Amino acid sequence: MSWSRLVPVAVFMVLTVFLAIGLTRDPSVIPTEMIDREMPAFELPELRDETVNVTESDFVGEITLVNVFGSWCVACLEEHPTLMQLSEDGTVRIAGVNWRDDRDDALNWLVKHGDPYETIVFDELSDLVIEIGVTGAPETFVLDPTGRIRYKQIGPITPDVWKNTIRPVIDAIEQETAAGAVGS
Question: Per residue in 135-165, pLDDT tens?
Fold first, then answer.
């Protein structure tokens, strides 16, 4: 028996193993190298007031959702009612990163749909979103009170995503923060 007859069988076996591994992975989970890292240094204008600059230090002090959105983003409309509800309830501080947008279009979109954001970074040229590894909008990052990225949500925040995914992350951060305060 020659080795040349075994090559197709070996190739088939290798492909079968890779396929089996691939089928066990959740395709909605895209790894990010930013988890457990500080928000990168940046200085960009605020959307509503271009004379004000926003920096990474503006996201320090309390748990913050940093939501990447654009007036051009259809999926952002799906999550917007959830963000509005969280903002109205005072559940968590929400900051926005308006990405690759026209300032007037973004402002008009917020007037039309509501503005849940405490502050909004105007990232017209993708400076910040490239640094934090955004692949598309909407994406949302959960930052702990020190400004460290603890979670990245790709896609819209629906009520179910909030309840089953993001709220537990925030609860864990709150428990860590409380335990740290007791231990101090």
Answer: 999 999 999 999 999 999 999 999 999 999 9
Structure tokens at 71: 């007036």
Percent of the chain with pLDDT over 90: 76
The two tokens of residue 139 are 């994406």
Q: Pick from 18, 50, 112: which is nearest to 10 by CA?
A: 18
Backbone phi and psi for residue 63, each to the nearest 5 degrees, phi listed first:
-60, 135
Candidates 78, 80, 120, 88; CA nearest to 101 is 120
Q: φ, ψ for residue 27 (rounded to 5)?
A: -70, -15
Residues contacting 21, CB < 8 A, separation 6+: none
pTM reported for the whole predicted model:
0.82
Residues 6+ apart with CB under 8 A from 78: 156, 158
3-state secondary structure of 136: coil
Pair type for strands 139-143 and 64-69: antiparallel
- Where the chain has pLDDT below 70, the residues are 1-4, 6-7, 9-32, 181-184
Task: Compute the distance between CA of residue 1 and CA of residue 41 in angstroms, rounded to an integer.
Answer: 63
